[in-house]
Task: inverse folding
């Protein structure tokens, strides 16, 4: 074989080998980026079989990023309304001595497509007129269906020819400490504000309701809640209603890390009664009870502190 031909063949073979090695190295270098990209936004499924907006059937098996509240926020903000309560009435003058109108703002949640809205009793109690502003800026006059002082819940109704957006009730008993939640409302009259936090505690009693038969079993979260959030929605990552934002513990009058919501299971029972009977129906135990303490355990020779002490019987 001639020397120049042999040299050309060697050069050709080296070129082919270099091309294969280069392609292999390129593929290997691209793989980590591709894996990171694929795993960057893990997806989960959320199934809905009932209509959500304007009578349309919701899509099933939506790919919802587990680290994003975008879907839940969009769903919740459409169903959370601004409530303007007017107190008093008439034009004030020295001649008529009518009480001037005062205005209070809060939030509410649409819970049915035909216009039922749940909110806090303290948002609308004693009002002479209630005005609802939707997320799309449309306004309605609301009728007060009923209120319940034992839970601080009120049920309103607006009339619309449209199928209105609303939230489904989630099971508040199933939420867990550390679970991510969102508070949606109108703090300081800033419409459709969304904040996020985690469930800090369940079954909290903060002695804020003055009714003798008050039921306090609040969900405590660290989601930011301020004046104007009252009556707004606490939702889980799927956008289901798990509570009604009601109270904060504060020295300044603004958020300081502790917010409290009425559990959705208690809300649902209350508004069903308000809709059907006009008031909440509950059984009375007929006994006053208290938690067991270490002294009770020792005196009564109990094995542990599970249970309660009956203080008196009605």
Result:
């Amino acid at each position: 074989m001639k020397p120049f031909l042999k040299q050309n063949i060697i050069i050709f073979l080296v070129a082919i080998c270099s091309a294969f090695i280069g392609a292999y190295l390129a593929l290997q270098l691209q793989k980590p980026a591709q894996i990171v990209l694929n795993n960057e936004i893990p997806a989960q499924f959320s199934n809905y079989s009932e209509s959500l907006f304007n009578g349309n059937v919701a899509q099933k098996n939506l790919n919802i990023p587990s680290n994003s509240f975008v879907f839940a926020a969009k769903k919740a903000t459409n169903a959370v309304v601004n409530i303007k309560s007017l107190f008093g009435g008439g034009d004030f003058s020295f001649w008529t001595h009518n009480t001037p109108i005062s205005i209070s703002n809060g939030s509410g949640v649409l819970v049915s497509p035909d216009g039922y809205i749940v909110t806090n009793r303290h948002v609308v109690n004693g009002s002479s007129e209630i005005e609802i502003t939707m997320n799309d800026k449309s306004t309605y006059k609301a009728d007060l269906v009923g209120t319940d002082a034992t839970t601080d819940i009120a049920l309103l109704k607006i009339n619309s020819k449209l199928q209105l957006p609303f939230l489904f009730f989630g099971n508040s008993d199933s939420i867990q400490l550390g679970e991510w939640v969102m508070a949606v409302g109108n703090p300081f009259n800033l419409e459709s504000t969304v904040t996020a936090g985690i469930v800090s505690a369940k079954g909290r009693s903060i002695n804020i309701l003055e009714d003798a038969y008050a039921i306090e079993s609040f969900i405590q979260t660290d989601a930011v809640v301020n004046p104007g959030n009252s009556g707004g929605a606490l939702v889980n990552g799927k956008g289901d209603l798990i509570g009604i934002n009601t109270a904060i513990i504060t020295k300044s009058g603004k958020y300081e890390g502790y917010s409290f919501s009425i559990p959705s299971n208690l809300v649902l029972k209350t508004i069903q009664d308000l809709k059907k009977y006009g008031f909440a129906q509950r059984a009375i135990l007929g006994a006053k009870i208290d938690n067991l303490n270490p002294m009770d355990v020792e005196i009564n020779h109990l094995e542990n502190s599970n249970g309660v002490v009956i203080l008196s019987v009605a």
